[in-house]
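Much of what follows relies on a compact textual record of a protein's fold. A complete example follows; check for yourself that the lines match position by position.
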Amino acid sequence: MKYENKKKNIFISAKDINIDEPVDFGRDISVNVRGEFTIGKYSRLGDDIQIFGNNVIFGEHLYHSSGLRVGGGGRYHPNANLKIGDRCTIHNNFINVCEPVVIGNDVGLSHHVSIITHGYWLSVLEGHPRTFASVKLFDGVIVGYRSVILMGVNIGKNVVVGAQSVVTKNLKENCIFGGNPAKFIKEIKPIDKETKILKVKNIISDYMKIAKYHGINPSIRLEYPIITVNNCKFDVEELTYSGVEDVETDDFRDYVRKCGLRYYSNRPFKSVVA
C-alpha cells in the first residue's frame, strides 16, 4: 500500500497502512516499512521524518515536533518493530530497531534522545560482546535531553532520566536516575493533599497573569480536585475533563501541560499563551 502527498513531500509505503483520522502531518516525511504502519487519531507527525523497519505503530494523541529517525542498522530485520503508546511526546530522536522497541503510554522523549538495540563494533573473536536486545519503556517515563538508552534496557513506570545520561541497565519504577552510566538519584514520593492544593492555586494564579496580558479572561474556580474553567471541568487527580470546550478552555488546557497536567481532547492544541 502507498500513501502520498506530493505538496507536502510525504511518501508512506507499507504492506498495511492505517491512518486513523484526524492526523496532522508536517512536511518531508518518508516511511518505508515492510509490514504495518499505523498512527492513531489526534496525532501529529511533524517535519523531516525518515522511518524504516518491519512494523511501526504509533498510538493516539502522539505529538512529534520534527526530525525523527527510525531504523539504523538491522532496520530490515524481522524483529525491527517499534510500538509507541498513547499520549506520547517525541522530538528529533534516533530509534534503532534492529530488535523491538516498545514505548508505553504517556512517555516523553526530549530532544536528541537515542535508543539503541545493538552493538557489535569490535570482533567477538577478540573477546568483545555481541549484543542484540530489545528496549522497553513503561508508562510515564520521561527521558531528558541527549540521553542514550542502550540495548536490553527496561525502564520502569514513572521514571525520570536526567539530561545527557547513558542508561546501561534496567531502572526501577518511580525513581529519578542520571549520569554516565545512569545511577539512582532519588525516589519519587507522593505529596499530600494540602501541598497539591497549594500547587494548583499557584498554577491558576500564574496562568491568569499571563492570560490577562494576552487579553484572555476566563472564569476559573477551584473546588479540589476540580478546576472549572468557564463551563468545562478539569479533574487534576484523574486528568479527565467534561463540559463545554471553547477557545479559553483550550488555552488553559494547553498551558497546564507545562506543569505536567496533560489533558487530551478532540480539539487541536492552539494555545495563545502556552
